[in-house]
Write the structure tokens for this entry.
Amino acid sequence: MIAYRNAEGAYPRHIGDIRLLIPNWEIGDTLPEGWHKVLEVDPGEVPECLDEEGNVKVGRQNFWHQIDPNYDEVNNVWLQTWVYSESISREPPEPATDKQRWQIDFEKNEWFLNILPLRPEPEPEA
């Protein structure tokens, strides 16, 4: 998807934002004054979440997100800029069982096991 940076530095902006200023604007037309096209950059694979000893953290995952683009002076272009942040993984650390299930503690931003209450055995029919 083509993205733009407007004259005030707001990013991302898209074709609809330009058409608010120039209703019939089309890709390839001259951009409004101060606007810049931002080239897409593939961020690659997200690194694994590792602890201090270099072990993979259970229940944690890194996610890419965009920040303000960088200007490449050598090539005279604006480039997408990606950073990653660590957060709780999308999937629980391991499968749940019939006696426990995984839940998320949103305040601590981590998975925890919730032990399910025991169900009483059904009484045999007489």
Notes: Residues 82 and 123 are 60 Å apart (CA to CA).
